[in-house]
Amino acid sequence: MNPLTTHPFTLLVNPRFQPAELYGEQRASLLSAPALAQAQAVITAWPGYAVTPLCVLPSLARTAGVGSIHYKDEGSRFGLGSFKALGGAYAVARLLCRELGQRLGRPVSHAELQRDPALRQACGDITVTCATDGNHGRSVAWGAQMLGCRCVIYIHATVSEGRKQAIARYGAQVVRTSGNYDEAVQQADLDAKTHGWFVISDTSYPGYMDVPRDVMQGYQLMVHEAVNALPQWPTHVFVQAGVGGFAAAVCAYFWERNPEQRPVFVVVEPERADCLLQSARAGAGEVVAVKGDLDTLMAGLACGEVSLLAWQVLASGANAFCTIPDAAAVETMRLLASPPQGDPTIVAGESAVAGLAALLLMAQDSAARTALDLTPDSRVLLFGSEGDTDPALYQQLVGRSASQVRQDVVAA
Fold first, then answer.
1. Would you say residue 1 has pLDDT above 70?
2. Which residues contact residue 391 at a Cβ distance below 8 angstroms, ignoring those fewer than 6 apart?
3. Pairwise CA distance, residues 49 & 70, whole Å
4. Is it the case that residue 158 has pLDDT exceeding 90?
5. 133 counts as catalytic
6. Half-sphere exposure in the Cβ direction for 77 (13 Å, CA)
7. Can 291 be counted among the known catalytic residues?
8. What percent of the chain is modeled with pLDDT above 70?
9. Catalytic-labelled residue, pool 72, 73, 84, 390
């Protein structure tokens, strides 16, 4: 019996998916293996770097009627609690090297930036900024603190106080705005232009592409780690999405390396913040913005406007788009905290579980299984993008704190 209650969902098979399409030079200029090697050299040199666990979920695989489920748990990443640590901080490092290089009239490497006191002092005159639902801003603030520059982070009206404090802990000035995430993005961009700051955004828009490209390239290190730990190439990948940068980074990794054996790639969004699905449904190649307050518990996915860079990959690279309700995410959080026998206990935040929730919902529906070619031989890869990044909310939703969940494992 499937452990997840049946919930309504939307599944859209991508009308623009091209199975024989090559990755191509244009996408390679966005995300590529050589650029990943550069990111890997920088990120793996940071203090505290460690490969995050790839968890096997055999019991859930049996109940879902698939051959295997592997779940990449990003909850321990650099102590920041999410995969976002790989993107924002890396983009800060790249920005500082570019800016100092322009000022000095010579290239500045990341290694030089870390060891040269004069360069670190020069970083103190540079301010980076961004808008965030929580995790990206925490990564940018952490990177700024690590590399010695100033940082101002914008959060929108519904970002929790816990997430605000987590960002401020890294020395950033945190500004709360009215409105939703996309309006906070606009405010950060406006203030940056006024004050001469540098925006480190995880979403791209006309005239702003370089930094989001660096953010996405940092994310690919997570995919590289997962693939190196897998016993076999996956047949299916379910990935949650906000603006789409994370999903595009994952999709591009597989597409570039093996275009003929790409996994079936499913993009998962909250039902109240489905800009990618709506853009795919439009079918004309143009992105569609979702307006309103984007009210979803999956705070990291509460985005209404698609990243243009991400859409270059996902528009024809994703097999399908789907939406799930908040209730499915909450059930999946509880399921991982109290898993069926044989599966590991995992502390997963509300945005982390969307891919698994979607898989479990699709597995109960014969039409969805057929559309996605889910069979008893399918090998599914998921990315648990965050741990309890909002501890108070996690305890409220799961009924136990993350520490209590972990203690119960020890006691057992």
1. no
2. 162, 401, 402
3. 22
4. no
5. yes
6. 34
7. no
8. 98
9. 84
